Amino acid sequence: MMQSRTHTCGELRIGDVGKTVTLAGWLENMRVVSAGLAFVVVRDFYGTTQVVAETEEMVRLFKDITKESTIQVTGTVRERSSKNKKQATGEIEVVPQKVTVLGKCFHSELPFEINRSREADESQRLKYRYLDLRNPEVKKNIILRCQVVAALRQAMTDHGFMEITTPILTASSPEGARDYLVPARKHPGKFYALPQAPQQFKQLLMTAGFDRYFQIAPCFRDEDARGDRSPGEFYQLDMEMAFASQEDVFQVMEDVLPPVFAKYGTYDRASEAPFLRIPYREAMEKYGTDKPDLRIDLYVQDVTDVLGGCGFGPFESGVVKAVVVSGFNETRKFIDKTLAGVEVQAGDKPYWFRVDEQGELVGGISKFVKPIKEQVFEKLNLKPGDFVALSAGKLSQAQKTAGVLVKTLGAAVPGHMDKEQYAFCWIVDFPMYEIGEESGELEFCHNPFSMPSGGLETLLKAERGEIDPLSIMADQYDIVCNGIELSSGAVRNHDPEIMVKAFEMVRLGEEDVKKRFPAMYNAFTYGAPPHAGIAPGIDRMVMLLAGEDSIREVIPFPMNKTAQDVMMGAPSEVTQQQLDELHIRCTAEEDEEAE
Questions:
Q1: Annotated region Aspartate: where (predicted)?
Q2: Domains of the chain, with CATH numbers?
């Protein structure tokens, strides 16, 4: 027997007819038929049960209870005359003998209907998240999250990994995003930082001799929200392996992820090992992105040599990229609306023309293409019914726009996306360095802790001018699923000599490395093993598995787009006493007065 109840609201079946039972849950709905007859739905975590009040006294009792009050009902189970096959408990109902209010709802008006909360304004949903979570459709995502985390934990343990927790209060370090800082009361003027990731700690664990580490790690980054990224905090399946190569990490992830996706996903198909491996530069050229959605059969082609001199102004400088969509039967209205959306996402205007059923070029910029029709047909292997979308400009911008065209047209035009699957791939061979847009100088392209392919010798060749530093690749990799990056990972740079040389390439010396990463640098001087790792995002995985477009739908208590918890009122003001204890002076009011 459970406290306050003998059964849950999702448990009773036809075999329980005749039993006296006690249920406890929320009063979801009540339909009054007459003074002496009413149907009441009681809901708990497990489901719903119909309760039938058949006396005037019992009907009055229920009418005095507000919706969403928690109640306890004791009564007799009987078979329903009109069964509901869509409901697990739809063959039975309970005739009450006693009803007790356990927790009164004092509000006659709810912020939204519980079972339709997903239709409500997001700000209302977040403010009353505890009510939103009562909706079974919302709750199931959180249940899914629990199941997925449990499955991942079990899989990692089965692969010989130990779950080790790492500190939350740590030192600030430059890792690509803004830190959340925590003032240290006992050390005036100094601050802890919440970890953007357990990166340094897990590498120190490898140096300490722990062979295989993992944790479901909380990470904190002060960055803007977007559909697949929650501001403030997120969780990742953080893992690291000693004496390991890129191939070792790939093997573990290809063992762990597909069964979880196949079992818990909205779609029951997931890529089998080995996942497709795509070099970074090839991904940018072929898909216009380093996060390709392999469910889409469209790809990017370079047509600069053919269309660059066609006389159309935007094509005369830079590069020209094309995406060919076969079997295109959409209207001009569809084209204009779709390409306008692409322009908003990409920040640059796309162009187009199409091939009609007679094989003639029509629409868009076709008048510029007609004089070189034969060359264009041969280059793109065009046929009647094809639609050609184009981007132009600097290489990076043309690729970005083409990538948005692939994703948008692939999803919008029938026949070009096999949606009901999970298509994984690895993006490999990332550039170690790039020219910074603002500095105009050599900078790290991604993770500065990655091992440069070829090790020290490659860096020395670049230093001697024998090779271009931009040609240096890093032993770094991303895992991508359905166009969403789940994680970056790398073979780590565990050699202090190589680490110093890698940083010297971006004008930082040994003293800079020691100052910024003292613990890791010193630890590596004591003999660090080669190691590699990765950290797929839990929130993004569950979002994909649940088939949701927003990551907030799979987080129990998410922040809004501006990193506010409107339910708890965070961030909030604190007392002057708290500030004084921390030796902090708040300048916000002073700034306002100065204005």
A1: 199-202
A2: 14-103 (2.40.50.140), 296-412 (3.30.1360.30)
